[in-house]
Amino acid sequence: MSLSLGYLLPTRERIMVGVHETTQILQLGDHADNVGLDSVWIGDSLLAKPRHDPLSLIAAIAGRTKNVKMGTAVLLPMLRNPVLLAHQVATMDHISEGRLILGIGTARDVPAIRNEFEAAGVPFEKRIGTMLEQMKLCRALWSGEKTDWEGRWTVKDAELAPIPYTKGGPPIWSGGGVPAALKRSARYFDGWFPSGPGNGKDWSKSWAELLGYAQEAGRAPTDITGAAYVTVAINEDLAKAESELNDYLASYYLRPAEEIRDQQYCVAGDRSAVTAWLNEFVEDGASHICVRFTGSEDEQQMDELARMREQW
């Protein structure tokens, strides 16, 4: 199976050390394009985990690269008006000439994220229904046909322009591992993009379940991309790799590293061990993996990721 490897750009990490300028992030997008990585990804948060706006940065990267795909890992669409979002995404899809992937999520139920939703004026408890309606409305607007909509939003005799570069709009990937989340991806979306918990074997069990739901919905397995979002610490010294992973997770989430490791796909080890760990995902159907590295040597990590891809 052909595997696409992507790199999570460190927008949150830059803010955490007081670097608000975007030059370094844009240069990392250039480097990913130059070394032949398949994709770069940017996370989303307004206040809970402050970082640069992903849509703005993706548009900037799209305008200065040629081949690398760009995705959100993941966007919280509920925090945005869907008509405005549809317009922004359609424009971004043209800037990138079809290289955009819209990864979306429902947000974890933690106090900081609840506060973020409240600040944006969005009911947290209604977020899943809101997200589903948003994506349906976006797709209706991306169709190029006149749209009338009555629901959480009222749209009358609307015709969005430009329509996306990609017919029907860019691919939408959704995550989550509980049965309801698997059913959503199987029925409505173009890809499944979870971040854990467990390892490749756990991913494969959920993937098989999702494909069963897809069959029930009348969809072919080839209609859905199997993807994963993983966090990786590579060091030939295993103790240092473990320490680096734990320190990174604790500082990023402000919670115990052990708690996060139980919730997300995480691995620490030397290059061969990490490659073998990633290969578990590939063997059972993953065709796209977004890697978040824990260190700060981003260009070297991209080079390492490009070399690791040669293992497949």
Tell me what the structure shows.
The chain has a domain at 4-170: Luciferase-like domain (TIM Barrel, Alpha-Beta Barrel). The longest helix has 17 residues, at 200-216. The model has no long low-confidence stretch (mean pLDDT 96). The protein is built from 12 helices and 11 strands. Helix 2 (23-35) runs parallel beside helix 12, helix 3 packs parallel to helix 4 (82-95) and helix 7 crosses helix 8 (200-216). With 312 residues, it is an alpha/beta fold.
Topology diagram in text:
Layout: E1 4-8, H1 11-16, H2 23-35, E2 39-42, H3 54-62, E3 69-72, H4 82-95, E4 100-104, H5 111-119, H6 127-142, E5 147-150, E6 154-158, E7 172-174, H7 179-188, E8 191-192, H8 200-216, E9 225-234, H9 238-253, H10 257-261, E10 266-269, H11 271-283, E11 288-293, H12 298-308
Parallel strand pairs: 1-2, 1-11, 2-3, 3-4, 4-7, 7-8, 8-9, 9-10, 9-11
Antiparallel strand pairs: 5-6
Q: Which term fits the overall shape?
A: globular
* CA-atom Rg in angstroms: 19 Å
Largest sheet: 8 strands, parallel, barrel
CATH-assigned fold name of the domain at 4-170: TIM Barrel
